[in-house]
Amino acid sequence: MKIEGISLGELEQAIMDLLWDAAEPMTANQVRDLLAQRHESGPAITTVLTVLGRLHKKGFVVKDDARRPHEFSATTSREEHTVQLLNDVLGSAVDKHAVLARFIGGIDPSDAQKVQQLLSSRDQ
Predict the structure, then answer these.
(1) For residue 61, with 0-12 CB atoms within 10 Å meaning exposed, 13-18 middle and 19 or more buried, which class applies?
(2) Could you read off the pLDDT tens digit of each residue along the chain, which spans 124 residues?
(3) Which residues contact 61 (CB under 8 A, 6 or more apart)?
(4) 86 in a structural domain
(5) Which GO biological process entries does UniProt record here (predicted)?
(6) How many domains, in total, are found in the chain?
(7) Residues 18 and 58 in one domain
(8) How far is C-alpha 3 from the chain's CA centre?
């Protein structure tokens, strides 16, 4: 599934973080309650429903219409979303090799070693 509008707003990101961390699909009320626990005052249920609707339209969440109240879950993992972000940024770069060189040059040595291991295992 192609996800539209890869970048997320602040509330969209907070909601996706909850869905990614959830072991099971969540209702809008559960999302709102957890947001309220994490922040001084959580958004109104109508706001949560609006954002969940936008995330569903963008392809980030699946909405189970068969259940009442509706349940929502992430369509991809957090890691897959990060890969999509990286691919989107890299795909828009004029000089991909320069971007990759700067990225690799700026990462922690242990991460660079892991990248080398992953590339070696891919080539085998």
Answers:
(1) buried
(2) 445 556 789 999 999 999 999 999 999 999 999 999 987 778 999 999 999 999 999 999 999 988 889 999 999 999 998 888 888 888 888 999 998 889 888 999 999 899 889 888 887 7
(3) 16, 19, 52, 55, 72, 73, 74, 75
(4) no
(5) negative regulation of DNA-templated transcription
(6) 2
(7) yes
(8) 10
Beta carbons of 31 and 48 less than 8 angstroms apart: yes
Residue 41 placed within a domain:
yes
Question: In the chain, at which residue ranges do the beta strands (DSSP E only) sit?
Answer: 26-27, 61-64, 71-74
Q: How many angstroms separate the Cα of 116 from the Cα of each of 42, 60, 93, 105, 120?
A: 43, 31, 23, 13, 6
Burial of 32 (0-12, 13-18, 19+ CB in 10 A): buried
| 50 burial via Cβ count (<10 Å: 0-12, 13-18, 19+) | middle
Q: Is residue 46 in some structural domain?
A: yes
Tokens of 32: 């709102």
pTM, two decimals, is 0.79
Same domain, 14 and 61: yes
* 5 lies in some domain: no
Among 69, 44, 75, residue whose Cα is nearest residue 57: 75
Q: Which two tokens stand for residue 22?
A: 């959830």
